[in-house]
Amino acid sequence: MKLIVPAVATAIVLASGFARADATCISAYEQTQTLRKDGKPLAAKAQAAVCAREACPALLVKDCTKWQSELEAVIPTVVLDPRSPSGGLRTDVRVKVDGVVVSEKLDLKPVPLEPGSHRFVFEAEGSVPVERTILLRDGEKNRKLTVTMAPAADAKGGARPVPVGVWIFGGVSVVAIATSAVFALDGLGKKSDLDSCKPRCSPADVDAMSSSFTFADVALGAGVMAGAAAVYLFLTRPSAEASAASAATFRPAPYAAPLSGGGTLGVSARF
Hints:
Layout: H1 4-20, H2 23-37, H3 41-51, H4 58-74, E1 77-83, E2 94-97, E3 100-103, E4 111-112, E5 116-123, E6 130-136, E7 143-148, H5 152-157, H6 164-195, H7 203-235, H8 240-246, E8 253-259, E9 262-268
Parallel strand pairs: 1-7
Antiparallel strand pairs: 1-4, 2-3, 2-5, 5-6, 8-9
């Protein structure tokens, strides 16, 4: 009984001390632990700062001060790095994270955030807004987020640049149609010669005339198809950003294929 009495007295003193404590301290103490368990170290650290004040009970201050250090190590940070098209750093950029403004003007300081997925929007006068979504992990520090702020004029005037495929297929179409015309004229000339020798014309001359008309038909077909491809690519050309992303996948290549009585020439490409 002699040992129990002091223990009970100590508990009573502690209980009375907490009862007299600011309710804000106790609430912050509890919220720190709850938010930490919920995977929100940034919010938990803010609460820990409240219960770490000197005005709070010493026991709470001790725990909350310790938790602040532990939470700081877990909170991920992002370094915002908006650039001009020439590569220069831009500081006149407004940044929103998940719809909330975190910076009206870039100060180059790391931005602390909760772990998880976040949507960033970069806005600047005279530039096209840029959106990025990234996933931050516990303890990930100084994750650099680099974006290029394209001038708004470029977005309006050159949003749909003419892709190289238009020029390639257009050129093939012109050459093929011109080639068709040459073979057609050659065939007509040979046909005129054969008209004068009927019905004793040489089979070789007849075959030559047929070959000329066949090549003319093949070249004309290739020219029409290439022209149609050029028109299609022009009408469905993507935006400047999408065009740059897909440029590396465009691989035009010439091809030749034999046909009955002739052959075909053209350009193949994969998009």
